[in-house]
Design goal:
The protein has 339 residues and is α/β, with parallel strands linked by helices. It has 13 helices and 10 strands.
Length: 339
């Protein structure tokens, strides 16, 4: 999905959340001690920039810990179903229709043609599971942990998984985050990853060395690989350019690396070369539509969007350049077992 569609999804979600707050939540009587921020959120709901921040703020406090559904179950159960409807993600096809309408095409037939065109030329690489792939992702993380535990079973290396990345603050670390890398408050983590699937460490008194940072993916395709090599590795670089520390088992250890840790990429499936190539073409096409709306008329006229070979080649060459520069370790047990 293009950047414009992602922003549109956020905008649609925010509109629904604000309308729900103004029409359904404003009249509720919520105990101050249970939700101390609720009334402040009601009074200032228009100032929030994302639906997630608004809805979690309303339920802030020790009792509900930002979970508005729990608050509604106690205060007004009749609104729980309405709440679930507004937080439910808009289907891609419906969002695409909103996108076309916002582009201002007056002719409804033209709108329908554009939708069909984009749907035809940019299908998903594979059907998405109902949970958005979370179950497959969790299985990949568990497989990675099992692999690393076996790899380092006879050594002094410890495996921590998962590991969160946070700016240092005076607030206590959530109990859900048992392994946390804390970086300087001056480091801007916006746009960077805030979690590593696993890291391997060696303790040295009150400090430690991070030997390797791991990322697990159910399927490793060109676009996924590019994201890891830019977003994940960019976060690693930020951590080790600034004084950082790692908190686990309730203890704080200074990160004493003299050099960048190795990046490891673990997957349980490699797509067929034809599928990987098609996905690379699709992503290039999405980027073209996102950046240059002038190609839409020709797409409608000819029923297709032509992606120049050189654009796909440039994308693959940039990935290859990053692989050669970073030199990550790749592990795919199924392939290793065959070879």
């Amino acid at each position: 999905m293009s950047k414009e569609l992602r922003l549109l999804r956020q905008k649609d979600s925010l509109i629904k959340a604000k309308a729900f707050t103004a029409t359904k939540l404003r009249s509720l009587e919520v105990p101050l001690d249970a939700a101390p921020q609720f009334q402040q959120g009601i009074d200032n709901y228009e100032s929030f920039e994302t639906s997630q921040r608004l809805l979690s703020f309303l339920a802030g406090g020790r009792t509900y810990q930002g979970k508005l559904d729990r608050l509604l179950k106690d205060v007004c159960p009749d609104l729980v179903m309405d709440y679930e409807c507004i937080v439910k993600e808009v289907p891609d096809k419906e969002l695409l229709k909103i996108y076309v309408e916002e582009k201002g095409a007056a002719d409804s037939q033209l709108n329908d043609s554009l939708i069909k065109c984009v749907e035809m030329d940019f299908p998903r690489a594979a059907p998405q599971p109902s949970d958005g792939g979370r179950r497959r992702g969790k299985k990949g993380e568990c497989d990675l942990k099992e692999y690393l535990d076996g790899l380092h079973s006879d050594s002094s290396v410890q495996i921590l998984a998962p590991v969160w990345v946070r700016n240092k603050s005076r607030k206590p670390i959530s109990k859900r985050c048992s392994n946390v890398i804390q970086v300087s408050p001056e480091v801007d983590l916006n746009g960077m990853t805030t979690e590593f699937d696993a890291i391997s460490v060696q303790l040295q008194g009150h400090s430690l060395q991070i030997a390797q940072v791991w990322e697990a993916k159910a399927t490793l395709d060109p676009t996924t690989l590019y994201e890891i090599l830019t977003k994940k590795y960019g976060t690693i670089a930020s951590i080790f350019r600034n004084p950082s520390q790692l908190v686990f088992n309730g203890e704080c250890y200074a990160i004493a690396n003299q050099k960048m840790p190795k990046l490891g990429i673990f997957t349980t499936r490699l797509p067929e070369s034809s599928d990987a190539a098609q996905l690379a073409i699709n992503v290039c096409g999405e980027s073209m539509l996102d950046r240059d709306s002038s190609i839409i008329p020709s797409a409608l006229e000819y029923g297709e969007v032509t992606v120049p070979r050189e654009k796909v080649q440039q994308q693959l060459e940039s990935i290859l350049h990053l692989v050669q520069e970073i030199q990550p370790d790749f592990v795919c047990p199924a392939v290793s077992a065959l070879t």
